[in-house]
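Figure S4 source data
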Amino acid sequence: MTGGKGDLGRRVVPRLVDAGHDVMVGTRSPQPRPDGAREQPYSLDPGFELEGVLAGVEGVIHLATDPFRSRRDVAGTAGLLEAAAASGTRHLLYVSIVGIDDHPYPYYRAKAACEQLIEKGPVPWTILRATQFHSLTKTFADQFRRAPVVLFPSGIPFQPVDGDTVAERVVELVTGSPRARAEDVGGPDVLDLKTSIEQYLRATGSRKPVWPLPVLGASIRAFRSGALLTPNKAGGRSFAEWLAELSTG
C-alpha cells in the first residue's frame, strides 16, 4: 500500500488486518507496528527499485499523493505500474476524486493523468473516486490558525464524505476482482464549503470569522460549478454527525 500512513490509509490498514490479510505499508521510515501490518521501505521517486518490494504482492492500494508537487504523482504512478506489472501484481486500486475530468486545477489534472496511466497500463485495475472528506474543513481552517480571520471563497458546493465510508469501500473493492471504474462515493449532504468551515470552527470552540475572498479564474469557476459533486451516489455519516463527534470528543 502506498500512502498507508495518511488519513485514508490509517483507516484502511486495520480493516484489512482484521479481515485476515497480510498488509504491507510502504514508507520511507519503517517502524514496528502493533496492529499486525508490516512496514517496508519504499519510494515512488525515480531510481528506487520497486520491483523487489512488490515481489509476491497480489494487490496494491495506491493512495500516495502530494497536492503541492502533483507532477511527482504522475511520475510515481507510472513507475509503480511498471514495477507492479513486472512483479505480477493482479490488482491495483487507485483512489481518486469525483469530478476531475477536464478540471483546470493543476492537482486535479495530475490525478486525471494518473487515472489515464492506470486505465491504459498493464495491470488489472479499479479506480474509486470519492468526494472530499469531512476533515477538509479542518485543513482549510488550520491554514489560518495564527490569523484573526479565515479567508475563503464562498459559493463552492461541498459534499463531504466520511473517511470510514471510503475505507470500507476500498477494502471491499481491493479484496474482489478488478472493477475498472467503480461507482463514485460521496457524503449525504451538499453544503457550502465556506459555511462548513464556519460550522467546524464553532464546533471546535472558535469564534473566528470566515470572510469571503474575491477569487476569479477558470479553477474557481469549476469549483463553483458543482462538478465535484455526486448527489445520486451518497451515504455514510453526515457532516453534522462528524461535527457532533468533534465537539463531544
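Figure S5 source data
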Amino acid sequence: MAKSECNKAVANLMDWIKREDRWTVSFDAMFEAHTAATLDAGGFSPEELADILGYEGMAALFGCVFEDLTAQRFETVPHNIVDDYLKRRGWRDSVP
C-alpha cells in the first residue's frame, strides 16, 4: 500500500473513532489506561501532562493509544474497531 493510501486509511479510521460513540468511549478508556499511573504518581491533570509532553510527546502518546485500540477486542463488542470500520465503511478505502 502506498504511503498516501495508508495515511488515508488511518485518517479514515481515526474519523470513525470520532463518529462512533462506542469507539470514542473505548479510546478515552484506553487513553486513561495509558496515563492513569503517570497522572497519579505525578499528581497532575491530563492538561498538565500535555504541557509537560508538548505536541510531539502527545502525538506519540496518541499514536500508542490508537495502535493499542486497533489491536484490542472488547467483551461487549464481538469485533474490534478495525473489523467494525471495514464492515461499515471499508468500501471507502482502496484495495491495496
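The helical segments are 3-19, 21-42, 46-71, 81-89. The longest helix spans residues 46-71.
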